[in-house]
Structures are given as structure tokens and as C-alpha cells.
Design a protein that fits this description.
- By secondary structure, this protein is α+β, with helices and mostly antiparallel strands.
- The relative contact order is 0.05.
- The protein folds into five domains: 109 residues, 7 Propeller (Methylamine Dehydrogenase, Chain H), CATH 2.130.10.10; 305 residues, Methylamine Dehydrogenase, Chain H, CATH 2.130.10.10; 100 residues, Immunoglobulin-like; 57 residues; 155 residues, Alpha-Beta Plaits.
- Helix 4 packs across helix 5 and helix 5 crosses helix 6.
């Protein structure tokens, strides 16, 4: 047969190599028309027994072996092993590639999935230790990383690995901080072994407590703008005195556990700690804590961008932003995928990359600024984890540096499975997701068989529809939305939720549309994938049928007509009642108005007209007499010695006296057109239109006599034993000259003349100014 063994474990028709076979002896043959020929590729002649083969979409040849695991032959001919499990031996029976580019391998220990990763990863398989704590870059562009228990590793530019441990002179294999010097040397801080200075010739200088280091646990290293070397230890902060070759403790800081020290482009020194964020100043420090708006006092790292904004990472409270002394706290509500921030780096495109306990977050710095400045409420961020090809999503921090941006733009982060390098420009965008699948349906909480159309009973009060997308790559980036046509007005955007909920569905035909899209901050847009449609019909209740609606409509029309007639009758009756009520209220209002008018004109004590009514009538009487060329006269009287009367008999008797005088006045003025008013206190006034001097003299004398005839005893009167009055009067012709006020003044002067003549007298001023 031309084969070296009759046991053929592989027959494969390769798109590039053609038909091929592999035997149990470990030889691979090309099958030609002239017979089998040993394959000339060295990568296929390793002596391993091949059991399966696959040519993927990129042209790589995958080989599954019988006991030696999975291997890949790249297009350049290089051979690389892909460990699938820790159990041995590694039998790979079948290989397949799906539509997303995932490679599937069937082994004795299960099915394994391999997918392309956007990350460069170096771990135990590549010769590094597993738990890497810190990472930095040397001047020769090599990458250095410190591990827990495995010492220090150097990764050259061609990915060759060199290890440094206690055997090479280090004081400890637990590396907790790194600082590369321009001369190529390296400061190596350890956890428990103090500080080492690894020189370019391989020599190691150790610094411990004997050199002023106050604690052997070194957490961070940094040179400031002046070149001074600062060292963060578990016991506090020290700086290196180059002249004395020993460390000096910085004693101005509060007692708290320090984490990192960083110097920014502005020359500022920042310290992270378990007690907040500190900025070292010339004479002390400035402290920001939760009281100043920091999300948490457990600050793990900082990063200062080109604009001088300080980004602050917390172990448990997310990201903070410090600008111009003002703090802003980002939370899950703003779009942050995780609250653990252990390291912050920025790529050349302006994206911040933040490592945490649940993965690596990428977000546009401009989007964060927009939220902090109130220009937006949320930002879009992408969380990368194992589903994106990371060997581990558990990134490590708490030591310095927990991340490093290399000169070629790559971002390096330590994890518990080695180093991860981000090459931002190489990141691929996710393809639009395939159409969703309807998985299950529940009506009133009970599962029903899935059918299209879906028939729902009339008593279907709740409907739940489960859906998903058959995609294994980055499933956490999927975002769903649905619309129930005939019920919803707009799409429901429900994020990663995979169930649609409905209540109160109307009867009839409906159509459920479910669509999926990518929520990926690494790409500018998230194209919506294809939709899935599910037709739904809900049976109506009897009262929701068309015939019931017609009958109900007719009854409603009849009822409306009957109600209309009833409303007309009630409106007419109400109108009549309202009319009667208005008439009654109008009469009451007129009576009340008359009473108010009468009250406003009458003096409440004497029943005579009051001063206000007198003034109104005086003006109108004056004008009327002027038009008629008739005279008008005024009589003013005053009760003689009324104050002494009041003092003697009291105010009650005084009020009664005023009422009797008022009655005498009214009886003394005989004409209806005459007006008698109380002018004020014990003074009274009579307005006599058309009366000349003779007439006013007669009226005045009659009034004086009537009052005297009352025979009201006056104990203290110097004039008489009985009450008397003094009377003054005046006459004017309005058509000739004068004013009402002047007439009152003349009558008042006549009254004073009567009092001056001894009281109980009448004095009338004639037109020539003489008194009579």
C-alpha cells in the first residue's frame, strides 16, 4: 500500500494540500494518483499520531492527535500547541469550525471551543508565571513582570522569556513593584524582601531596614520631576537620599495604608491609599475622601490625562474624576460595567482601559467627560472577559504598576493567568448577530406549546416570551428589543434581558418582532441584526365579539336618546327654579341696598341725616337754587353748655337729650324740602332751599322756642335752669356769588355771635354782613 502502518487514523481532504492520510506510526502522507507520498512539510512529520484535521477560514491547519493534544500549523509553517485540559493524555477525535469562526475540538474530557482573541496573552504556556502582579517596560522595549512566588520575568521583543529568582540574587520571589531606569537597570520591590536594584550586568543591590526602609513590603516606586526616588511601603512613604545612600521617611502623612505613588506631567505627586487620595505639596498634603465626594476611601490607582484631569480608580466604588478641585463619581447607573478599577491606561485613540476583578473595560474618555460635565446622562462601555478570548477575567492590582502603556501603543495588564496585552488598533468589531430564536412561551404563568401562529385563550391575562440569539462569542454584548404590533407604540429596549412581558392584550391578531444588536463600545455603531416574527391571535370574550359590539352600540344610542330627553326636561325645570331664585334674590338685594343706603345717610343716635348726606344735598341744592335764581339758607345751632350737662347727668342722659333736641328740630322745620342734619357732637344744621332772611329768622326763633319748651333741666347752665340752644343763620343767592362752604362759614359766624351775646339767642347774618 505504500504506508508504514496498516492502522490509518486520519483521512482528510485538505483544500490546499489535497487528500492526506496519517498512520499510527506518526507519518503523514499525501494521497496521489500514483500512490501515497510522505508529506514534505516538517510540521506534519513530528511523529505524533494524527486523528483529525481542519483547515480554518484563515488558512491555518488544525491537527488533533491521538494522545498529544491539539496543534496548529500556521500559514507560515510554524507549529504551535494549544493545551485544552490538564488531564492527560490529550486525545482529540474531531475538529470543526462554526459560522462565527470558533474552532470546536471533541476530546475524551468534553468539547472545547477556541476562538480568535483580540489580545496578546502570555502565561504559563509561554513560560511566564501565572499570578502576575506588576508590569513595566525597559528602555530596550522588553517587558518585565513580577509574579507571586515565581519571581521576575523578562519578555523580549521576540517573546523570549527570561526568569529571575532568588537564585539570581533577588531577595524574594514575590514581586510587588517595578521601576525601570533610563540606564536599563530595574528597581524591584518585593513583598517581604525589601527593595532590589537589578543592574544591567545582572548584579543585584539589596535595600532593607538597615538602609532606612521602614518596611520590607514594597508597594510602589516612582521618581518625581526632580529625579528623587520615592518608595511606598506597607509602613509608610520614604525617599532615597542619593548622597547618603539610604532612605528617609516622609513623616507629614496620615497613618493609613498607602498603595501607589505617581508623578504626572505637571509635576504633581499623587498617593493612593486606604484613607483616600492625597496630593503631596511642599509643606504637606491635600486629602480627598468620601466627605469631599470620593466614591470610596479605598483608592487603588490614578491616571492623569493630557488635559490635567485626574482619573481615580477604587477597589469597590468605580471611577472618580477630579478636575479643578471638583470631584465627579461614575457609577453603574452611568454605564460603568464593573465597580472594581485596579489600573487605568489610555490608548492613542483616547479610550480609557480599566482593569478590574470582572474583566477589562474600554470606554471613550470624551464620553466620560460629557457625563461629568452634564452634557450626557450615560456613556457606552465594553467589558471584556473570558467570552472575548481572555484566559482569565480576574485582573490583579494593588501594586505598582498594575498596568503599563508601551512605546508601541500596546497596553499591558497583569492577571492571575499571566500578562494580557491590548493592541487597540487590532480590535475587531462584532458582526451583526443572527436572528433571535423564540425558546418558550408562558400564558398566565403556565408553559404552552410553541406554534406559529400562537393561539391564546380569551382569559390570557399575561404573556411571557423567552428568546435568545444562538451566538457563543461575546454573548454579554447582545442587546435586545421587541415590538408587539397591534399593541405597542414603540420598541421596548430591554438590554440583555431575554424575556418579553405583556399584560392586558387585546383580542385579535398581533405580531411579535424581536431583534438583537451589539452593544460594543469598540465600534461606532451597533447594526441591528435580522428579526424574528411570531404571529399571535388572542380569542375574544363574548363581550369582545363584533355582534356584541353592534347590539351594545344600538342600546347605547337608545339609552343616549332617552337620557337626552330626560336631561332636557331637567334643564327646563332647573331653568324655571333658577329664574324664581334669581327674582327672589334680586328683591332681597334691593331691600338690603335700600337699608344700606338709608344707614349710610342717617345718624344712628338721633335719626337725623348725617354729615355725608348733608354734604351731598348741599351741593345739589346750591346748584338747583342757582339755576332758579332762588336763595338758600342755613341754620346752625349748638346746645348751650352741653359738656357741663354731660358731666352732671352722664353720657346716657346726654344722648337722650340729643335725641329730644333732634325731634324739636324736625318739628320746627315744616317743609318737606328742608333738611335737618346732625353736624357733629351737639351741633345741628338745617338746610332751607328758597328761604330768604325773613323766613330763616322765623324758623330759627321757632326752633329755639321748641327746645326751650322741652324744659330739660340743666344743673350747671349759667343761662337758665333748663336746656337752651344758640342759633345762627345765613342766607345766600347762588346765582350771584359765593360757595356752599362760604355759606356754612357765615352761618357758623352767626352762631358764634349768638353765643357771644349770652347764649339762648338767635343771630341771622344779612347779606350786608350785619347781624339781626
Amino acid at each position: 500500500s505504500g504506508l508504514d502502518s496498516t492502522q490509518v487514523h486520519l483521512l482528510h481532504n485538505d483544500p490546499e494540500l489535497g487528500p492526506m492520510a496519517a498512520t499510527a506510526a506518526g507519518t503523514t502522507y499525501r494521497l496521489t494518483e500514483s500512490g501515497p507520498i510522505v508529506h514534505e512539510s516538517a510540521a506534519l512529520q513530528t511523529g505524533m499520531t494524527l486523528h483529525s484535521a481542519l483547515r480554518d477560514r484563515h488558512g491555518n491547519l488544525w491537527l488533533g492527535t491521538y494522545g498529544d493534544g491539539l496543534w496548529r500549523v500556521s500559514k507560515n509553517g510554524s507549529l504551535q500547541a494549544f493545551p485544552l485540559a490538564t488531564k492527560q493524555p490529550g486525545y482529540v477525535f474531531e475538529l470543526a469550525e462554526d459560522a462565527e469562526g470558533n474552532v470546536w475540538a471533541a476530546t475524551m474530557h468534553g468539547v472545547h471551543r477556541l476562538r480568535d482573541s483580540d489580545f496578546l496573552q502570555f502565561g504559563p504556556a509561554e513560560g511566564l508565571g501565572a499570578a502576575t502582579f506588576v508590569v513595566t517596560q525597559a528602555p530596550d522595549d522588553s517587558i518585565w513582570t513580577g509574579t507571586e512566588g515565581s519571581g521576575l520575568f523578562r519578555l523580549s521583543t521576540d517573546h523570549e522569556v527570561t526568569q529571575f529568582t532568588r537564585e539570581q540574587g533577588l531577595s524574594s520571589n514575590d514581586i510587588s513593584s517595578l521601576l525601570a531606569e533610563p540606564d536599563g537597570s530595574l528597581w524591584v520591590g518585593t513583598f517581604g524582601g525589601g527593595l532590589n536594584h537589578l543592574h544591567t550586568d545582572g548584579a543585584v543591590t539589596h535595600y532593607g531596614k538597615e538602609k532606612g526602609l521602614i518596611n520590607s513590603h514594597v508597594m510602589g516606586l516612582q521618581r518625581d520631576a526632580s529625579g528623587r526616588l520615592w518608595v511606598v511601603t506597607d509602613g509608610g512613604l520614604v525617599w532615597f537620599d542619593a548622597r547618603r545612600k539610604r532612605f528617609v521617611e516622609e513623616t507629614s502623612l496620615p497613618a493609613t495604608l498607602l498603595r501607589e505613588i505617581r508623578s504626572d506631567a505637571l509635576g504633581r505627586l499623587w498617593l493612593t491609599s486606604n484613607g483616600g487620595l492625597m496630593q503631596l505639596t511642599g509643606d504637606g498634603y491635600t486629602l480627598w475622601t468620601e466627605e469631599e465626594g470620593l466614591g470610596s476611601n479605598l483608592v487603588s490607582t490614578t491616571y492623569t490625562d493630557a488635559e490635567g484631569v485626574v482619573w481615580i480608580g477604587s477597589r469597590e466604588s468605580g471611577l472618580s474624576r477630579l478636575e479643578g478641585g471638583q470631584l465627579f463619581q461614575f457609577t453603574l447607573e452611568h454605564g460603568l460595567p464593573q465597580l472594581s478599577v485596579l489600573a487605568i491606561l489610555e490608548d492613542d485613540a483616547g479610550r480609557l482601559w480599566m482593569s478590574g476583578a470582572d474583566g477589562l473595560v474600554s470606554v471613550e474618555r470624551a464620553a466620560l467627560n460629557a457625563v461629568a460635565r452634564g452634557e450626557s446622562k450615560r456613556f457606552r462601555a465594553r467589558l471584556y472577559d473570558e467570552t472575548d478570548g481572555l484566559r482569565s477575567a480576574q485582573f490583579l492590582g494593588g501594586f505598582q504598576p498594575a498596568g503599563w502603556k508601551a512605546r508601541d501603543g500596546r497596553l499591558w495588564f497583569p492577571t492571575n493567568q499571566g500578562l494580557v496585552a491590548v493592541v487597540p488598533g487590532d480590535f475587531s468589531t462584532l458582526p451583526p448577530p443572527p436572528p433571535p430564536l423564540i425558546e418558550a412561551v408562558r400564558v398566565n404563568g403556565e408553559s404552552i406549546p410553541l406554534a406559529d401562529p400562537l393561539l391564546l385563550p380569551a382569559d390570557a391575562s399575561t404573556l411571557e416570551v423567552d428568546y435568545t440569539v444562538p451566538r457563543l462569542g461575546a454573548p454579554h454584548t447582545l442587546r435586545f428589543e421587541y415590538l408587539l404590533e397591534g399593541f405597542d407604540r414603540d420598541w421596548h429596549r430591554v438590554g440583555s434581558r431575554r424575556t418579553a412581558y405583556f399584560t392586558g392584550l387585546p383580542p385579535g391578531s398581533l405580531s411579535l418582532r424581536v431583534a438583537a444588536s451589539n452593544h460594543d463600545a469598540a465600534q461606532d455603531a451597533s447594526p441591528r441584526g435580522a428579526e424574528v416574527n411570531l404571529d399571535i391571535y388572542r380569542a375574544p370574550f363574548w363581550y369582545q365579539t363584533w355582534w356584541f359590539r353592534i347590539i351594545a352600540g344600538l342600546l347605547a344610542v337608545l339609552l343616549a336618546h332617552r337620557l337626552y330627553l330626560l336631561a332636557i326636561r331637567r334643564a327646563m325645570l332647573r331653568e324655571r327654579q333658577l329664574e324664581l331664585l334669581v327674582n327672589r334674590r334680586t328683591r332681597e338685594l334691593q331691600i338690603a341696598l335700600s337699608k344700606v343706603q338709608e344707614i349710610s345717610r342717617i345718624d344712628s343716635l338721633t335719626g337725623l341725616a348725617n354729615r355725608r348726606f348733608l354734604d351731598e344735598n348741599l351741593d345739589s341744592t346750591w346748584a338747583q337754587c342757582g339755576e332758579q335764581h332762588a336763595p338758600v339758607s342755613i341754620i346752625m345751632l349748638d346746645i348751650d353748655c352741653f359738656k357741663q350737662y354731660n358731666d352732671a347727668v352722664g353720657h346716657i342722659a346726654g344722648d337722650e337729650c340729643l335725641r329730644k333736641v333732634a325731634e324739636a328740630l324736625q318739628s320746627g322745620v315744616l317743609r318737606d324740602e328742608d333738611l335737618v342734619a346732625r353736624y357733629g357732637g351737639e351741633e345741628f344744621l338745617a338746610l332751607l332751599p328758597g328761604a330768604d332772611v325773613g323766613a330763616v329768622t322765623q324758623v330759627a326763633q321757632r326752633i329755639r322756642s321748641l327746645v326751650k319748651d322741652l324744659r330739660i333741666p340743666h344743673p350747671n347752665s349759667p343761662v337758665s335752669d333748663y336746656l337752651t340752644v344758640s342759633v345762627g343763620g345765613a342766607t345766600a343767592w347762588p346765582a350771584e356769588k359765593g360757595t356752599p362752604d362760604e355759606l356754612i362759614q357765615r352761618a357758623d359766624q352767626a352762631l358764634y355771635a349768638a353765643k357771644a351775646a349770652g347764649r339762648d339767642r338767635v343771630r341771622i347774618e344779612e347779606n350786608n354782613g350785619q347781624m339781626r
